[in-house]
TrEMBL record:
This is Inositol-tetrakisphosphate 1-kinase 4. Residues 616-628 have a biased composition (Basic and acidic residues). One of its GO terms (biological process) is inositol trisphosphate metabolic process. Residues 216-305 form the Inositol-tetrakisphosphate 1-kinase N-terminal domain. One of its GO terms (cellular component) is cytoplasm. It holds the Pfam family Ins134_P3_kin_N. The lineage of its organism: Eukaryota, Viridiplantae, Chlorophyta, core chlorophytes, Chlorophyceae. Its cofactor is Mg(2+). It comes from the Eukaryota. InterPro entries: Inositol_tetrakis-P_1-kinase, InsP(3)kin_ATP-grasp, ITPK1_N.
Length: 628
């Protein structure tokens, strides 16, 4: 990963960056070399990096300049630290390379020996240095971020003990202090990495009493790390009693302890097992084995839970139970769900179910699995589905392989024959939904959502469908983008489905009216159901609302009508329910665009950790009881 991207990860992690331009002594040659040029170039490509010129110390044999340069340096550093909400030098650590330039910088900064002892006690690397400046290798940068987490952990323990707490208790939840800056020197160009304290940040990690700073080590692809860091989800400075750090794949996990949570994105690293079914990679299986051997480390989430969403055939079986849910919400005209305006929203606290009002009919799309696209198997699959085209066809492997997001929108049944997609595959009913999809994010007990463009309504009339794709197939990659526009415009004489009153056609109502927007209560009920069925704390699901003309025309009999037996209340008299279809579930989403996502994500990780440790303690207590 280029140096610029490494610096960007530090910025996204809540750190501040500054380059110290150290003036060379008059008797020394100007610093040269690729490292200096690389740091300078990387700084220019990152917004928010400060430049701090420092007067240099005298060269060998020169006298009288050391105290003057040190005083000037202290003034510059203190002013910068104050602007960034930091305390100099207490919240600044030095990261430097070996050599004459590094020695001059350490002398000029006049670092406190006590700080060096704290860092050494935390296991930070570097012979005599507080931290070693990475030479450019990816693993060294990961080690730097992990060392920062260990430093914060050690400082938390020290300050907790000084405040009267146990040294083993690192900080109270909510504490946000700690090691806030790292200075690095390389060929005359020095980088200082510090953390902004934020409004109201606590200066002490002790926090008085129980609770500890939790280190969440994570293992995931670099691209996923960037996505999450960009959203502010991987804070490198303690927030709400939690700090994140990457774990190096090249080192045994035992050598990277202490960490308390092992966070993974195992669904990104899948292999094909027997019969083309997805299986976790050896690296992910090793993580689970490590946590079994170290029960004090929580695996978030357990692989057996994540396994239920990586196989679309198995996921369909889980989602079939959604039809058991019955949800009534506030009457039309009541305040819309958060995010109903398309901006997304967050529900702060579960509310009670309102009496009467809108009724929602929930279900999953009908689907079946095929091992080939030969004519005989296609005919049997269409018969099992029992619903008309169009269909969405997807590989059984839901993620983590190059072809897992290769999909096709098939406009009539015969077009399934000879389809070119990875096998085995899932053939799924496509529900027209007015080109709007609701992406719900679940972080522990919290549920929030955004609204995104989706696939436009697809015609059921064969002549109209042929205008879109003469061969009846529209292929796309769902990872890159859903096809939010269709290839051609339909002639005005061809309706998109069997005739309906003109006032209810999608072109007159391109988006559901406010009353048809999924309510917060509905999303919470779906999330609770899936949370229980899957055993996950970090997941997302996609919901569509069947278009006005679609309801009752493509789903199972009775899906759009709620009679008195099912509604069990006054709302049954209102007739048709809003038909909501959960079309996908995924593990550990990016939470892109979701407000308050960092805060709620931290809460979910801490909650999952506490829950797992509580269950561990309960099992241990049961074993003790059994031995008495």
């Amino acid at each position: 990963m280029p140096l610029q991207e490494q610096l960007q990860l530090l910025l996204w992690g809540g750190l501040s960056l500054a380059v110290l331009e150290l003036e060379a002594p008059a008797t020394a040659a100007p610093p040269t070399g690729s490292a200096a040029s690389a740091v300078a170039t990387a700084r220019g490509g990152c917004d928010g990096v400060d430049v701090l010129p420092l007067a240099g110390l005298g060269g060998p044999g020169e006298e009288g300049s050391t105290e003057t340069a040190a005083a000037a340096t202290a003034a510059v550093m203190e002013a910068w630290a104050t602007r960034r909400g930091l305390a100099w030098p207490g919240e600044v650590l030095v990261c430097s390379c070996a050599g004459e330039e590094a020695g001059r910088l350490r002398q000029q900064l006049q670092l406190r020996p006590a700080l060096a002892e704290e860092v050494a006690g935390a296991g930070a690397p570097g012979g005599g240095e507080l931290l070693s400046f990475p030479s450019g290798e990816e693993e060294e940068w990961r080690g730097l971020r992990l060392a920062l987490a260990h430093i914060n952990l050690q400082r938390a323990a020290t300050e907790a003990a000084a405040a009267g707490g146990s040294p083993a208790q690192h900080s109270a939840p909510g504490a946000q202090g700690g090691a806030k800056a790292i200075a690095s020197a390389e060929a005359g160009l020095e980088a200082v990495h510090g953390a902004e304290s934020g409004a109201g940040a606590a200066r002490s990690l002790g926090g008085g009493g129980g609770g500890g700073l939790v280190v969440a080590g994570y293992v995931m692809k670099a691209s996923r790390e960037r996505d999450l860091a960009r959203e502010g989800l991987l804070n490198l400075v303690p927030q709400d009693g939690l700090v994140f750090a990457p774990l190096a794949a090249s080192l045994p996990l035992e050598r990277q302890l202490p960490f308390h949570v092992l966070l993974h994105k195992a669904s990104d690293e899948l292999e094909l097992g027997p019969g083309g079914a997805p299986a976790f990679s050896a690296r992910m299986l090793a993580l689970a084995d490590f946590c079994r051997q170290h029960p004090a480390v929580s695996l978030v989430d357990p692989l057996e839970a994540a396994a239920k969403v990586i196989n679309r055939t198995e996921l369909a079986r889980v989602c079939d139970s959604l039809s058991q849910l019955h949800v009534e919400d506030a009457p039309p005209g009541a305040e819309p769900a958060p995010g109903a305006d398309g901006a997304g929203g967050v529900h702060d606290a579960p509310g009670e179910e309102p009496a009467g009002g809108r009724t929602y009919a929930l279900r999953a799309p009908r689907s079946t699995t095929v091992a080939s696209f030969e004519a005989e198997e296609v005919a049997a699959a269409v018969a099992r589905l029992g619903c008309p085209a169009p269909y969405i066809v997807k590989p059984v492997v839901a993620c983590g392989t190059p072809d897992s997001h290769s999909m096709a929108l098939v406009l009539w049944p015969e077009a399934l024959v000879g389809l070119q997609l990875p096998l085995p595959a899932v053939v799924q009913e496509f529900v027209n939904h007015d080109a709007r999809i609701y992406k719900a994010y679940v972080a522990g007990d919290e549920v929030f959502h955004t609204v995104r463009p989706s696939i436009p309504n697809v015609p059921r009339c064969r002549a109209a469908a042929q205008q879109l794709a003469p061969n009846g197939v529209l292929s796309f990659d769902s990872l890159k983008s859903l096809p939010t526009s269709l290839p051609t415009s339909l002639p005005a004489s061809l309706p998109t489905s069997p005739p309906v009153p003109p006032a209810k056609r999608p072109r007159d109502h391109p988006a559901p009216p406010p009353a048809a927007v999924p309510s917060q209560l509905l999303l919470e009920r779906v999330a609770a159901h899936l949370r229980g069925a899957l055993g996950l704390s970090l997941f997302g699901f996609d919901v569509v609302v069947a278009s006005v003309e679609e309801a009752g025309g493509n789903g199972p009999a009775g899906a759009s009508e709620v009679d008195g037996r099912r509604a069990g209340g006054p709302s049954a008299a209102q007739g048709a329910a809003v038909e909501c279809v959960v079309v996908d579930v995924n593990y550990f989403p990016s939470y892109r665009g979701a407000p308050r996502a960092p805060e709620l994500f931290r809460k979910a990780v801490l909650g999952a950790h506490a829950g797992q440790q509580g269950r561990q303690e309960g099992r241990a207590a049961d074993r003790r009881d059994d031995t008495r």
